[in-house]
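Researcher: Here's my situation. A collaborator sent me these components and asked whether they could plausibly form a single complex. I don't have experimental data yet, so a predicted model of the whole assembly would be a useful starting point for our discussion.
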Amino acid sequence: MALVFDIGIVSLLIAIGAWMIMARDTLVAVIIFVVYGLLMSIAWVRLSAVDVALTEAAIGSGITGMLLLSAAARLRQTEGAGARPSFPVCIAAGSLCALISAGLAGVVLLPADVAPTLAPLAVANLSDTGLENPVAGVLFAYRALDTLLEKVVLLLALLGVWSLGSDRAWGGAPALGAYVPPNDILVFFAQVLPPIGIVFAAYMTWTGASHPGGAFQGGTVLAVMWLLVMMAGVARAPPISSTKVRWLLVAGPALFLAVGFLGFVIAAGFLAYPVDYAKALIVLIEVALALSIGVTLALLAAGPPERTPQP
Amino acid sequence: MSSLLHAFTILAVSAGVVFFIAGTVGLVRFPDVPTRLHALTKADNVGLGLVVLGLLPYTGGLLGASKLVSVWLLTLLSGAIVTQLIARAVR
């Protein structure tokens, strides 16, 4: 019975993947991509990777879907009018894609030799970190440097989005939810849902130490709640020159980095934690990261500044 | 007692699945957006509600049960509002 379900999920995934590639309209392709991400997260649950499933649903299909949707909406005006690429260009693009797919398939299907797994070692030493969720252990103890750099990359991405704004609007606010009437149903939604969402985000961040969840998933829920409030016009998007916003953006990575350097003094080295306080430090970092991730992702989706700053 | 619970679960979940199938058929067969939305909301609201109801005996306590019920309530809320937004967008 479980096998039938798995085969069903896999064939659906392949079919939806093919459909996404063949869709002519960008907006349609993006919507299929969101559906693909949700199905993918069910597949991750079937593989017992609940942390990955949560991330896939929240980031892979949620926030990425939203970013792609706004990109598709911006591309609307330029599409259709342009000439279609010539036949040789189509052939070249197609064969390059086929080559990459064949290479990937070769790597997956014909592994030279199975890589040694570090999972037993990781679980055996987990008690030193005070955490119970091995995924959190890998993210914040074994591979903390990767996690730190990931957050810095997010900030760089936000700088990239901001730099798309015009000179006139630099320092201004993204134009989000400017034209929503005050009695709109979206306003009601933006007043009812955020209290629930914020509690849920806090729960997800807190529970990440011992169960699936964590700063990234919690931060994404926060981001979506803030986006909803901005889109409904309940609270205006802040100008990007706001000092408060900028402090919130760097708070998580900065605290992470500070604890990392503190490791030289109180523990074995960079990004090392003293055994007695490991869990407390990691949870502290996670809380700060969740806030920063929430603000970063929400502003990423809000887009470049478009309103001229008020003096 | 447990076989009675099993029977209850099978009945409720099957009834829920019927609503999901009816909703899907409606989504595929109905002619325009408002009627399709009408079909979809039946699957979301009643179908999911019946599935949740059928699974309640297996949640192993009040906490698990309330989690399932809040999933249903949140789906009701977002379903109702998103349906309105879509309907307004196509009008």
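Model: Some features of this prediction you could bring to your collaborator: The longest helix of chain A spans residues 50-75. Chain A touches chain B at residues 185-186, 188-189, 192-193, 196 (CB under 8 Å).
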